[in-house]
Amino acid sequence: MLWLFAVAALVLLMVAVGGITRLTESGLSITQWKPLSGTLPPLTEAQWQAEFDNYKQIPEYKVVNPNMTLAGFKGIFFWEYVHRLLGRVIGLAFAVPLLWFAVRRRIPAGYGWRLTAILALGGLQGAIGWWMVASGLVNRTDVSHVRLAVHLTTALVLLAGLVWTALDLRQLAAVPFSRGARLAPLAAAALLLLFVQIVFGAFTAGLDAGYAFASWPLMGDAWFPANAPMVEPLWRNAVDNPIAVQFIHRWLAFAAAAGLCLLGWRAWTSGAWRAGIAVVALVALQIGLGIATLLSGVAIEIAVAHQVNAAITLIAAVFAAHAIGRRAPAA
User: Fold this and answer.
1) Which residue, among 203, 134, 184, 198, has the nearest Cα to 320 in the 3D structure?
2) Is the pLDDT of residue 176 over 90?
3) Which pLDDT does position 87 carry in this prediction?
4) Less packed terminus of the chain by CB within 10 Å, N or C?
């Protein structure tokens, strides 16, 4: 149980580092995927120059950073390297204890498949990360915002799975023969709204849509700018149009907030008052951070706090959802 909470904390740290990597435009600094040999950073000047030469071959350098020096490259390399290294650490922190528990037959009945699925999802997340990076190495100067959304969403599904499983195991340790909690319809709806909002947050980050309008609650002098350029077919605006994406992200937040607050209230009435209060407080903070991110012109510190708080809000929501979904012990 404590092991899973520790791995969840590492995933939360990974989300924070990923946000910094994105906002500092560091994600394309490492142009190769070397799962084993890539563990060590460049150690000599020749190795650094080789990495820099690789970076010079991609469109981001040629179009965006043609005047970058080796010192500047080392700065963006740092965040991408830390991001990838942390991914490896998370993999080991999960896989090694899982193997130890399996060999010693310490995994409770019914949890082996779930822990294996989490391990597989973690491996898939690494592949998705490279799939995302690869999208920015040939014909564009940044990564695909759709692939970025898949990468972030998968990380948060992994985080939710870790926390939910840890809570199930904690309940089993406290009450023998406890069954895993079920996902109540209200909780499912609230979590779905939160994940959809997170997807649009990733679209907003990937499209740099946060820079489109730095005002609140109006976008400029209107709720939605009348002269905003639109693309065809119409549905693509919700995915590819920065202005439309920012608009949806702004107002979908309140639908997600309503669902999460209902979840918090239900947790409160079920006796899990701490989880209920945490959900409502974190939702309010998240909306405030979102507005502050816009008004600040997407200041890195505030934008990273906004992304990290989204993950913390998810954790609180999982606690609340688990609380209202607990079932009586098996006979």
Assistant:
1) 184
2) no
3) 95
4) C
